[in-house]
Records
---
Amino acid sequence: MRAKGDAGLVWDETALDTYLAKPQEMVPGTRMSFRGMEDAADRADLIAYLKQAAALDPASDPSAAAAPRAEIGAAVLAIEGDPAYGEYLASECVTCHQPSGRADGIPSIVGWPKDAFVRALFEYKTNVRSHQVMRMVTSNLGNEEVAALAAYFGQLSPQ
Ligand code: HEC
């Protein structure tokens, strides 16, 4: 996704239509585990709906001030996690996330770069990403534990 953005991709309607038709084809390696929406009329309806919803969303008003966001500290990102401790902690996670990297509705979390993993958990914890289950799961994790989980899942590769 980032590489596409760096290469100048703009998410206009045409781009979104191409993406929704075959996400994996347009953005190889995307973590969005969605096969795609074959029917062009369905995609057009969906895009029309998203446009209408965006127009009603106060967050899409550029004159609205950006909400303050908690920032993750460099010191937290610098922690080297212990993968063995991470494996021990992961027993809670693998009831939902497959260690094989298979994603059936629940996203794959294996083989991620450490920073992205740590950031994702931080964002659930601080409710930047709002998801009740992940918020509960992360609320008791300290920085060392998050780093250990990042180290453990990061060294696994999708089967
Ligand atoms: C009860 C099921 C469940 C458990 C247990 C669980 N997760 Fe999750 N996790 C989810 C779901 C569902 C999502 C997608 C949430 C969303 O839409 O933002 C998610 C999202 C994530 C993401 C972000 C994925 C992405 O593609 O952005 C990470 C990273 C993650 N979980 C790590 C963990 C870790 C580490 C643990 C264990 C400490 C854990 N999860 C435990 C269900 C679970």
---
Amino acid sequence: MNTLDVLAIGRLIRDGDTIIEAHSTSTLIRAGNVNVVVDTGSEEMLAAIKTSFRQIGVLPKDVGIVVLTHMHDDHCANNDLFKKARFYVRKEECPDGKNFVPVSEDIEIAPGVRLLHTPGHTEGSMSVIVESERTYVIAGDAIPLEDNYRRMVPPRLNYDAELAMESIKCITSYADVIVPGHGPPFPKIKGKMR
Ligand SMILES: [Zn+2]
């Protein structure tokens, strides 16, 4: 069965509308014979991510696939840690480079691990659905904070608020547990319509 470990819990600190600090959550999925990392976090999280790898007993060089939910700095500052990985990024924002794989469809990248286009925060925002003992959705900034889910409000930073709300609803239709872009995983509320 697929295993999901949060390598580092991200945080987002705001003063009114100004972002003071932004560090994304970084997640490891062990799926059959491939290790997948979703988002590589900010520079400040590198030490915590390395510590988590040591504790889990996986080496960063044994990560075969990195999925970047989108290309904001606080989600992809430690890409260099993953020397042997291929980087999956939605085609709308995929950089050039031999290790980058532009994603144009919601493909399965490993058994029970599926990509889901969830635009709104950015055009190429992408989530990852992981089938384990429960269904996890790693949402990136499609759901930046648990608060966005609880209050059903789009990410404050968005290019299309309506599309962002559609993406939140889509994610919650699949998920038992949501891993937000910033903060720890949280369960879907039973009885909540979405
Ligand atoms: Zn972002």
